[in-house]
Design a protein that fits this description.
This is F-box domain-containing protein. It comes from Arthrobotrys musiformis. There is one protein chain. This protein is globular. By secondary structure, it is α/β, with parallel strands linked by helices. The C terminus is likely disordered. Helices cover 25% and strands 20% of the residues. It contains 14 helices and 18 strands. α6 crosses α9. The strands form three sheets. Strands 3, 4, 6, 8, 9, 10, 11, 12, 13, 14, 15, 16, 17 and 18 form a 14-stranded mixed sheet that branches. A two-stranded parallel sheet has the order 1-2. The chain has a two-stranded parallel sheet with strand order 5-7. Among the domains are: 42 residues, no CATH class; 124 residues, no CATH class.
Length: 509
């Protein structure tokens, strides 16, 4: 009778994957053969601490397993300040991502910043050990003087990641800290100094990154996420002088091969400097970044972006020109504010004929006065009539003020959504849901707060039992401290809906 070791490796793996986590660990230590065989089941990601890097180098304990690793975590420390210097938990060993993480606070002590930079350089330098990685998430905060050189070093190492599919670059903050590039550079190890090279100014980084975008290819890249406080929005002017400040992060996006690359996310805190629509329909006077990205943008089917304020109609016009094949769009604002409410907001979106799902900021102005739902409803009907036959779901999100019934009337900001979608029973009939979410304030707990947010049910639902009738007529009930809440109701477009007190103009402060 054949023993377990005589079974094919495929069957052994099939058995092992059904074992609980602790049992997998015990099973893996039965023999070296089984350990190597089950390595990919136990660890989806590998943390590149000093010990981790050493273990995967030539002659290291796991050197023979490098090709099996598809998700690496070159993370030395948590980004969270509170967990600074603590090793990443075991849960992250199961992560399907590659992360660089650095401390969020450099302080004024040189050795703290040097420690962070040394760890980042070690992680970047170790990327070639893992030629089969599929997903990479880079998260770090660094001194402004080091940003360009670190980005170029990372980009050069990415050239060997031919199987990379998902790439996320997150730079939460760029700090201006005491000390020039040379001061930090000289404090690093020789290997880190060689990796970063001599200082390159902004123009040199820009030129070098543009050269890389034409000489390097990431053939399997499908998704790119870029989060940076200063990067230019994909709706903005990519040829403006301001774009050079962080526009080189788009280089990795330009290395992708169409048509595989279809997902893009860009979050920025930079003010939107809109390009003219005519400049996006002609190659005249285009800069190197615009030329590199033109064909890439046109292939994107999923776009998610966040910016300081809501886009104007002109911005949406640009979006429709740059991303004509979008099927899923999400535009978020970081402060919930927008410009003046136009008569027909987001009218240019009708140029996106393939759009199926859209999440847009609720049209509002600087006084937090929101457009009434009736106007939004009319706009949705116009879009449908304009030929957007693929549209299945549309959601507007913003901040409104709602009245809390305590001993005095208090107005409290809350998130509010209106979602329009096609009725499953009748593909030609649109309906909408009103969603409102918020969070109770701890100091009001003893009052037994009741929220009344544009109830669409009966006016008699004032019981204090936390109930409410649920269903399609809405919800109104008692809520305890720390509880999120949602109120909802369903209406068909064209139905009368007079009870819209949450949707009218907001109250003045």
């Amino acid at each position: 009778m054949a023993g377990f070791n005589d079974l094919p490796n495929e069957l052994k793996l099939e058995i092992a994957q059904w074992l609980p986590k602790d049992a997998k660990k015990l099973f893996a230590h039965c023999s070296k053969t089984i350990y190597k065989l089950t390595f990919g089941l136990r660890f989806k990601g590998v943390i590149l601490s000093d010990a981790g890097i050493k273990a995967f180098k030539d002659c290291g304990l796991y050197a023979g397993l490098r090709s099996t690793i598809k998700y690496v975590v070159p993370a030395v420390y948590w980004f969270n300040k509170v967990l600074l210097r603590e090793r990443i938990s075991d849960a992250d060993y199961q992560s399907r991502r590659v992360c660089f993480r650095g401390p969020g606070d450099f302080g004024t002590v040189l050795n703290k910043t040097t420690l962070n930079l040394e760890g980042i350089c070690d992680s970047i330098g170790s990327l070639p050990l893992f030629p089969n990685i599929r997903e990479l998430v880079v998260i770090y905060s660094i001194p402004s003087s080091m940003e360009g050189n670190i980005f170029l070093a990372l980009t050069e190492k990415l050239a060997g990641c031919k199987n990379l599919e998902n790439l996320c670059l997150i730079v939460p903050q760029i700090k201006v800290v005491p000390g020039s590039y040379h001061v930090f550079h000289e404090a690093l190890s020789q290997s880190a100094q060689d990796l970063l090279g001599p200082y390159l100014d902004q123009d040199a980084v820009w030129t070098r990154s543009m050269q890389m975008s034409t000489g390097m290819v990431l053939p399997n890249l499908k998704l790119v996420e870029i989060v940076h406080p200063s990067i230019t929005s994909p709706l903005g002017d990519l040829d403006s002088p301001a774009c050079k400040k962080a526009g080189f992060y788009y280089t990795v996006f330009a290395m992708a091969v169409t048509p595989k690359l279809t997902w893009l996310r860009v979050d920025t805190e930079a003010a939107l400097e809109t390009a003219s629509k005519s400049s996006q329909t002609s190659s005249d006077n285009e800069g190197p970044l615009s030329r590199a990205l033109r064909s890439k943008f046109s292939n994107i089917t999923w776009l998610k972006t966040a910016q300081p304020i809501a886009p104007t109609n002109s911005d949406i016009d640009i979006l429709a020109v740059r991303f004509p094949n979008l099927g899923d769009l999400e535009v978020r604002t970081m402060n919930g504010l927008g410009g003046l409410i136009p008569p027909h907001p987001y009218s240019g979106i009708t140029g996106l004929r393939k759009l199926e799902f859209a999440r847009l900021p609720w049209p509002t102005n600087m006084g937090r006065q929101v457009m009434q739902v009736k106007q939004l409803t009319d706009q949705v009907v116009r879009w449908k009539k304009a030929g957007m036959g693929c549209l299945k779901e549309l959601c507007f999100k913003g901040r409104v003020r709602v009245e809390m019934e305590v001993e005095i009337h208090i107005w409290e900001p809350a998130e509010a959504w209106y979602k329009f979608f096609v009725d499953e029973k009748d593909g030609e009939q649109w309906v909408y849901w009103k969603l409102t979410g918020g969070h109770l304030l701890r100091k009001y707990r003893h009052f037994g707060i009741k929220f009344k947010l544009g109830d669409q049910g009966d006016d008699d639902s004032d019981d204090d039992d936390g109930g409410g009738n649920g269903g399609q007529d809405g919800y109104d009930g008692m809520l305890d401290d720390g509880v999120d809440f949602v109120l909802w109701g369903r209406r068909r477009l064209g139905d009368e809906d007079e009870d819209e007190d949450i949707d009218g103009d907001a109250s003045d402060d």
